[in-house]
Amino acid sequence: MPRIAYVNGRYVAHAEASVHIEDRGYQFADGVYEVCEVARGYIVDMKRHLDRLDRSLRELSIAWPMNRAAMEIVIVEVIRRNRVKNGLVYLQVTRGVASRDFLFPADTRPSVVITAKKVDPAALAKRAENGIKVITVPENRWDRVDIKSVGLLPNVLAKQKANEAGAHEAWFVDADGTVKEGGSSNAWIVTGDGALVTRPAEHGILRGITRTTLLDVAAKLGLRVEERGFTVAEAKAAREAFISSATTLAMPVVAIDGDPVANGHPGSVALSLRQAFFDIAEKRPA
Ligand code: PMP
User: Fold this and answer.
1) What is residue 1's predicted lDDT score, i.e. its pLDDT?
2) Which domains does the chain show, CATH number per domain?
């Protein structure tokens, strides 16, 4: 079955979908994106993802390419046309096409691309059973990583380095030694006395939607949460560590820079958060 993409008002064959060479997303990374999980035929946390899209667009003074209700309809239609029951929706909005100039163009319509793809839930479940390894890298990104911009070169380089080291994710570490977040995920630990710790999202990290919903899940499960920074040493000595994102959900971390976390096996808190996530997240039939 051919994949279908939505590009600036049209549903087109994915293999032939294209944007103009002077799209500002292509030339300046002048755009933002969202990735939503599709699980068991539902779009997960669409409201929170579109709220964050709205914030990212406002921070960059980019207009919505269509109104929000229309965007929701297109998202559902892209999922339907690609027959995705389990997978992802990717949505990107850029400032649009204009002759190359640093200044914002006048009267340019934002560009929008929406794609969907299937992901095998069994493969993800298997990865969660085994856990993943992470490496640490010095933070080298700009200080507006709270905006979900398509400018992801440091993340690309960090994740490539992780891959070459046999790991799945790279954690950016601040100059003060605290863990910020992963290249495409938020970072968490569970302390020896059972507290769930993750960095506050006010500044310096992306406020992950999965992170926000996991905080709801933690409250429902009666877990104690501490929103504070933690060091790499604290993470290595923790009872558990895990990452979160719409693509991985709560995913246990079993090694950091080659050192095992606890006994080197996925922790029970991460796995129970993962289990309870779907029931507590907002779901909309796709
Ligand atoms: N931090 C970064 C840098 C990310 O790219 C992502 C994934 N897009 C996340 C955190 C997790 O966000 P979410 O839970 O919304 O997928």
Assistant:
1) 79
2) 4-119 (3.30.470.10), 124-285 (3.20.10.10)
